[in-house]
Amino acid sequence: MTAIQEALNQTIFGTSGVWFLIGAALVFFMQCGFAMVETGFTRAKNAGNIIMKNLMDFCIGTVVFILLGFGILCGENTFFGLIGRPDLQIFTDFNNFPWHNFVFNMVFCATTATIVSGAMAERTKFISYCLYSAIISCVIYPVEAHWVWGGGWLTDIFGTTFVDFAGSACIHMVGGTAAFIGAAILGPRIGKYGKDGKVNAIPGHSLTLGALGVFILWFGWYGFNGAAAADTNRLGQIFLTTTISPAVATCATMALTWIKNGKPDVSMTLNGSLAGLVAITAPCADVDALGSIIIGLVAGILVVVAVEFIDIKIKVDDPVGAVAVHGVNGVWGTLSVGLFATGDGQDGITGLFYGGGFLQLGVQALGIVCILAWTIVTMIIAFQIIKHTVGLRASADEEMKGLDVTEHGLVNAYADFMPIAVSNASLDSRIDADVTGDIPVTQAIPVQLAGKFGGATDGVKITKIDIVLKQSKLEALKNEMDKLGITGMTVSQVMGCGAQKGKAEYYRGVAIESNLLPKMKVEIVVCKVPVQDVVDAAIRALYTGHIGDGKIFIYDVEEVVKVRTGETGYNAMQDVE
Fold it and tell me: What is Dmax (Cα atoms) for the chain?
């Protein structure tokens, strides 16, 4: 090694911890990646809520990590290596405080917390999510991370050590497990599963954002896996394995979905990339290229199987696939150390397939079981406490409207797509200038009336029924209409106000003039089914006794023309044989 190389090595890996902090910055940037993946894979009406949750994961996590979390993770061993002793050195001896170690561990803690956001998206109360974030960052993550990285009991067991180089178990498996528990306790989003058990797809609103998030995460993962490298040679190995595994996993997922569905699935393939990254996180410094290929191949197949099993078989609604990506592949990645570690890696561990026997595989399995047990028990307790105090799930009406407007007063996260009546409120007043001059308004804006039909040609009475209703009541109305044999209807999202007159929302302390509330409008035209039956059924479905239940409007229809055949009247209203 040349003198220049030695000097560079001292600068990057020496006591200054520069590379350590660069890695921490890359891991922090992964918060952006998580936010983009979750936003893209969910509906636009919840985009602002998802961004807010990812922001607060880091900020709330930082506060509680300062107060308690860091001490539990990195403090002196107590109770046989089960927990660290908080000493609050950051306040009592700041000049000697390990700043770089704190920052590095803090960003990893935030990553663990934010994994859960996607699985619980679109139906979780914001205050409840904030409480969860504080709990996992303050206690749950620091305890199990202390066992592995803080000198706890898993660092010396049966003459070897539990290896999780960058967090397949401590971060991803824990985050994925918490995500599964949270999603299961919450229940599925409205409309996700039918009464007959049918699974309904709820596509995300922007695959572009989702893909951007995956690329950001992949980029940040080089810091995620590489920051703890002991020397430059290991850093190169880690970057290589961190590239091979997700690339192979992506190809495997694409091929599998192509074979199964006839076309490659874009969103699932993006999940495949993340699955490969999660799986290689534990063994990245201890496996070779062949091991990385096998790990990635299994991860790419495993994520498809796990997503479909969780969604279709056990019916736990995970909008972004967090449980399959992080939980399932976190387990696989941690086990793979005991299978594919070459013995020449940073930890000096030899896996089963390289002549190391079953000892390391057994230690890896023991560590997984213990970390899982801790996470499952503590997260069930935490979520149940939150559920039975402040409540965990948003109301059905809030969920249908979207958490952006109900939780944050944000009419739309995409300003150019705000309802016209709202977004135009702040436009130049000249657009709404009154008509001036001697010509009356009725003449200044000419109206041409179309000729009227003389009634349905076959003499059958045709009636149109317009129903304005709460968004949360749409499924109930559809079920009632199905019972009457009415399957033809037009459904629109509309803005309106009745007796409630709407309410003002605020952005940066400034009132947004809006007196319109989101509603659904259902238009039905009938000729054979009695109108009164339709009205009675609609009332049964919509009535709650509260203001805003909706309105029903009834009109005579003069004629109906079926465009394809030219049939009119009663014949135009009939289903295709």
Answer: 100
2.60.200.30, 3.40.710.10, 1.10.3430.10, 3.40.190.170: which CATH number matches 10-407?
1.10.3430.10
Quote the radius of gyration of the chain (alpha carbons, Å). Answer: 29
Whether the predicted pLDDT of 284 surpasses 80: yes
- Mean of the pLDDT values across residues 167-171? 96
Dihedral, CA atoms, 202, 330, 225, 101, nearest 10 degrees?
100
At 10, the pLDDT band (50, 70, 90 cuts) reads very low
| 8 Å CB contact between 94 and 109 | no
Judged by DSSP in three states, 158 sits in: coil
Q: Give the E-state strand segments of 142-195 in sequence order.
A: none
Residue 463 pairs with which residues in a beta bridge?
526, 556
CATH 3.30.70.120 domain span(s) along the chain: 462-572
Counting other chains too, the contacts that 265-271 makes at CB distance below 8 Å and 24 or more residues apart are 266/207, 266/211, 267/41, 267/204, 267/207, 267/210, 268/303, 268/304, 268/307, 268/321, 270/37, 270/207, 270/210, 270/211, 270/214, 271/303, 271/307, 271/321, 271/324, 271/325
H or E segment and range at residue 525: strand 517-526
Distance CA 476, CA 432 (A): 40
Amino acid code (one letter) for 103 = V
CATH 1.10.3430.10 domain span(s) along the chain: 10-407
pLDDT tens sequence across 213-222: 999 999 999 9
Ranking 142-146, 233-237, 367-371, 422-426 by mean pLDDT, the lowest is 422-426
Q: Is 511 exposed, middle or buried (0-12, 13-18, 19+ CB in 10 A)?
A: exposed
Tokens of 94: 């700041």
Distant-in-sequence, close-in-space partners of 85: CB < 8 Å, separation ≥ 6: 71, 75, 76, 77, 78
| Residue with the two structure tokens 């919840």 | 46
* CATH number for domain 462-572, candidates 3.10.20.70, 3.50.50.60, 3.40.50.300, 3.30.70.120: 3.30.70.120
β-pairing, 76-78 with 83-85? Answer: antiparallel
- Dist. CA 151–CA 130, nearest whole Å: 30
DSSP per position, 59-100 = HHHHHHIIIIIHHHHHSEEETTTTEEE---HHHH-GGGS-HH
Cβ atoms 552, 465 nearer than 8 A: yes
pLDDT in tens, 485-543: 887 889 998 877 665 555 555 544 444 555 567 788 999 999 888 899 999 999 999 98
Amino acid in position 292 = S
Instruction: Quote the CA–CA distance of 131 and 109 in Å, as a whole number.
Output: 15
Q: Is the pTM of this model over 0.85?
A: no
